[in-house]
Every structure is written in structure tokens, then in C-alpha cells.
Amino acid sequence: MDATNRSIRTIDDVLTLLDGLFSPGADRWTKGGADWWDGFYADRDKPVPFFVAKPDENLVSYVEQGLLPAGGKVLDLGCGPGRNALYLASAGYEVTGVDLSPTAVAWAEERAREKGAENVRFLCGDAFTAALDGPYDLVYDSGCFHHLPPHRRISYLALLDRVLAPGGHFALTSFAAGEGGMGSELPDADFYREGKLHGGLAYTDTSFRAIFADLTEIELRRMHDQSADSPTFGESFLWTGLFRR
Length: 245
Known about the structure:
Elements: H1 11-19, H2 33-42, H3 57-64, E1 73-77, H4 83-90, E2 94-99, H5 102-115, E3 120-124, E4 136-142, H6 153-163, E5 164-175, H7 188-194, H8 205-211, E6 216-222, E7 238-244
Parallel strand pairs: 1-2, 1-4, 2-3, 4-5
Antiparallel strand pairs: 5-7, 6-7
């Protein structure tokens, strides 16, 4: 043990130290997270509901109800194979999708070429450090937030503060706690004791309202289940939330 290694001076140093408490790939974000997701996306034929090129039902409802201003710039966090990014591009938005996984980004780019989509681009990397050309009128997150370790909520909120335009909208889907929910309901401290996130964190509506208290809530509800032949994706074990800055 090196007692002379006393190098922590900043919040970033503390966050990096806490990252290191998790096993490689265990949090699916740091240290091997990209490799984990590459393996996840490698087999496109797996029966994973969100592999299908369908947008989230809540996102479609926001657009169709006029809850989001027409056009504008969008950042899709953890975009995966691009299903929501490509929907937004087809609806007239200028979209940037970012994801840790090169395999997911390559798949998204392939889909974009097939559709002839020109107003969308995909970046491979960590959204917290990527060169993002905000501000964005909408930041959308479908299933990224619940894979972050608790201390990275600080980084996430800082990212929103940095890239979300005044009056802009933020929307997400995330594992729901409680009946019919999904994800781990362990207290935050237990994830550090065990060095893993158990597949993702479950949240309550109260948690979301507290975490995003600096934003104005427009809608917060369970996602609506969608049938296999529906043009949209929906699973009721997820929360959907729409907020405005």
C-alpha cells in the first residue's frame, strides 16, 4: 500500500476514485463498459425488444402532442443503434447520438445510411467528456441514466446544465422501482460495498423529482406497454419523464 498516494484535490478526482470501486465493466459505463456493450450489441438477432427500429412511445407522444417545439437540436444520450435518434431526425430535428459502444454506433450509422438520413450524426465515446456542439433544445435519454453509479449523477446533472439550452427540454426513460418494476432497489451505499450495480438502478417518481428538482416537470409516468406489432417501443417496467429547463 502506497501511503504517499494522496493526490485527490478536485471533485473529478473523487469521482474517478469512486469509479475505481467497481469491477471492470460492472457498471457498464467505466473500465470496460464499452466492451460489455459491444458484446451486448454484437448479436443483432437476440430477442431484445429495443433492438427493433422503433422509437419510444412516450417520445412519439411528446412530438405528436406538441409538447416539444418543432425542429431544433437534439442530443440522444446512450443512443444505441439509433432508433430514437432516427425517429427524431425523420421528424425534422437535427440530432446527435452518442454511445460508448463502437458496435452500437456502427449499427446506428448503418441504419442512417439505409434511411438516407442526413440530419443525424453519431459519436462514439463518453458523453461526459465528448465534444458536444450544444446547446441542445432537447436532451433525450432512453435507458442510459439507470446504468450510472450513484456518484455519476453529479456528472449527469453537470452535463445537463452545460448542454441544455434555456427553455430546452430533457426527457428520459429509466428502470422503475416497485410493483412491476425492474432494476435494483438497493440503497446507494450498497452498490459501493458490493462493487457492482446489479444490472442497473431502479428509481421511484419521488427520486426523479428530487434529482431533477431544478427542472420543471411536464410529465412523469410509467411507460405504456406496446404490442409486438406496434410501431413504437414500450415496456411498463420503465419510467418516462419530460422536464423543461
